[in-house]
């Protein structure tokens, strides 16, 4: 199931990698697509939406629905 989040604060490739790493720690099978210019993170995962958002937030990025 694809889930899309608005994630602010990603300003560079390092930020993208940090977000991707946090998601992969929550769900190693997740497929992650990041569009930094649009502040969008799309995650292909069966994991609970709240758990994925929490993983991103714990990395230090603001997450909206």
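Q: What amino acid sequence fits the structure above?
A:
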């Amino acid at each position: 199931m694809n889930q899309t989040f608005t994630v602010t604060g990603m300003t560079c490739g390092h930020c993208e990698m940090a977000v991707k790493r946090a998601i992969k720690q929550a769900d190693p099978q997740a497929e992650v697509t990041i569009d930094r210019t649009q502040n969008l993170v799309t995650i292909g995962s069966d994991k609970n939406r709240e758990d994925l958002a929490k993983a991103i937030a714990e990395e230090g990025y603001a997450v909206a629905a």
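Q: And what stands out in the fold?
A: The longest helix spans residues 13-26.
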